[in-house]
């Protein structure tokens, strides 16, 4: 058996004016540990996006939309890097709320009982005043749903996202660019959030329904008509599983990059590495794949910068 020549571990040499493209190369040459995984992930995403026969998914949880990382996700959709997005209901909450109100810096160590007394909700080290979340979402969703109901009363979640984006009219919004570029955002757990709750309330006295089966039809049609599928998957849960579940019907993802802070020893989907999905046929045996362990609020800006 021919032995592959070993590659030398090289030190970083970052100078004033070092570009992200050069940093990417140095991360690959550094040999360890997560930096090399990140560099590998960048290479896989680049290859995935350049594959014109590949249907590309972007999947992420809602919490990062409460941070400035929302801008990275927005620009990925604005620049049409991905064909379809799968996310959680809270993404709609935070995107809609932040289109009209402000969130603020906080700390992980604040007194939560005192915050509650002041009408301030803590999401990690982000502070969300009541008026910047529940109140504004209730106000806007009531108006939007009355308006939407005049034209239609039965929508898939991706169609609802487009209707919301059309009405938000804020270029900082993920939903706005989804509508503008007609990139579907599928929300399998649509009722698990403030936007979903307002839909339920509106439906109590109006003939109005969200048909999640139409989302499944959309995903099935997209996957079955694709030559290959690829995905950048942030975090886990229902958003992650929906992508890999549907991709198994195309023989599994040909490209897969996971970003996660979850552990795998408890058997959770969020912590499951790409290699586990291979056993299920959700990622191809010969796929280009990597799991990057780390905080998406750090990793996503680096990946996006390297793609520019």
Describe this structure in words.
With 308 residues, the chain is of the alpha/beta class. It has a domain at 49-96 and 133-295: Deoxyhypusine Synthase (3-Layer(aba) Sandwich), CATH 3.40.910. The chain has helices at residues 20-30, 34-50, 70-78, 89-98, 112-117, 134-149, 157-168, 174-181, 194-203, 212-224, 237-247, 274-280, 296-307, and strands spanning 54-60, 84-87, 104-105, 120-123, 126-129, 154-155, 185-186, 209-210, 228-234, 253-260, 283-293. The strands form 3 sheets. A 6-stranded parallel beta sheet has the order 7-2-1-9-10-11, with helices on both faces. The radius of gyration is 21 Å and the shape is globular. The two termini are 40 Å apart. The mean pLDDT is 96.
Number of helices in the DSSP assignment: 13
Strand content range:
15-25%
Pick out the low-confidence regions. none
For the terminal residues, how far apart are their CA atoms?
40 Å
Percentage of residues assigned to helices: 40-55%
Given helix and strand content, the structural type is: alpha/beta
What's the CATH class label of the domain at 49-96 and 133-295?
Alpha Beta
Strands in their spatial order, largest beta sheet: 7-2-1-9-10-11
Shape: globular
Question: How many beta-strand segments?
Answer: 11
Q: Could you give a short account of the major beta sheet?
A: 6 strands, parallel
Instruction: State the CATH superfamily name of the domain at 49-96 and 133-295.
Output: Deoxyhypusine synthase
Mean pLDDT across the residues is 96
Radius of gyration: 21 Å
CATH topology of the domain at 49-96 and 133-295: Deoxyhypusine Synthase
Task: State the order of secondary-structure elements, H for helix, E for strand.
Answer: HHEHEHEHEEHEHHEHEHEHEHEH
| CATH architectural grouping of the domain at 49-96 and 133-295 | 3-Layer(aba) Sandwich
């Amino acid at each position: 058996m021919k032995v592959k020549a070993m590659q030398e571990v090289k030190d970083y040499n970052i100078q004033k004016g070092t570009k992200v493209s050069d940093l990417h190369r140095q991360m690959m040459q550094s040999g360890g540990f997560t930096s090399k995984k990140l560099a590998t992930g960048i290479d896989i995403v680049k290859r995935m996006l350049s594959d014109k026969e590949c249907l590309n998914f972007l999947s992420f949880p809602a919490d990062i939309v409460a941070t400035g990382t929302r801008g990275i996700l927005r620009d990925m959709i604005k620049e049409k890097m991905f064909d379809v997005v799968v996310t959680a209901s809270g993404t709609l909450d935070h995107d809609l709320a932040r289109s009209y109100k402000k969130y603020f810096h906080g700390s992980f160590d604040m007194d939560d009982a005192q915050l509650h007394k002041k009408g301030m909700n803590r999401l990690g080290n982000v502070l969300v005043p009541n008026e910047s979340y529940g109140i504004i979402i209730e106000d806007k969703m009531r108006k939007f749903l009355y308006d939407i109901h005049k034209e239609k009363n039965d929508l898939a979640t991706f169609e609802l996202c487009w209707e919301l984006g059309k009405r938000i009219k804020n270029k900082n919004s993920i939903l706005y660019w989804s509508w503008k570029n007609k990139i579907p955002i599928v929300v399998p757990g649509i009722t698990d959030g403030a936007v979903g709750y307002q839909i339920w309330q509106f439906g109590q006295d109006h003939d109005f329904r969200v048909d999640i089966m139409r989302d499944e039809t959309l995903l099935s049609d997209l996957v079955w008509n694709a030559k290959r599928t690829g995905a950048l998957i942030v975090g886990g849960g229902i958003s992650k599983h929906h992508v890999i579940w549907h991709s198994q019907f195309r023989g599994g993802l040909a490209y897969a990059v996971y970003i996660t802070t979850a552990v795998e020893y408890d058997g959770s989907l969020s912590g499951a590495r790409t290699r586990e999905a291979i056993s299920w046929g959700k990622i191809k045996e010969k796929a280009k794949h990597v799991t990057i362990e780390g905080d998406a609020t750090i990793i996503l800006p680096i990946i996006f910068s390297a793609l520019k």
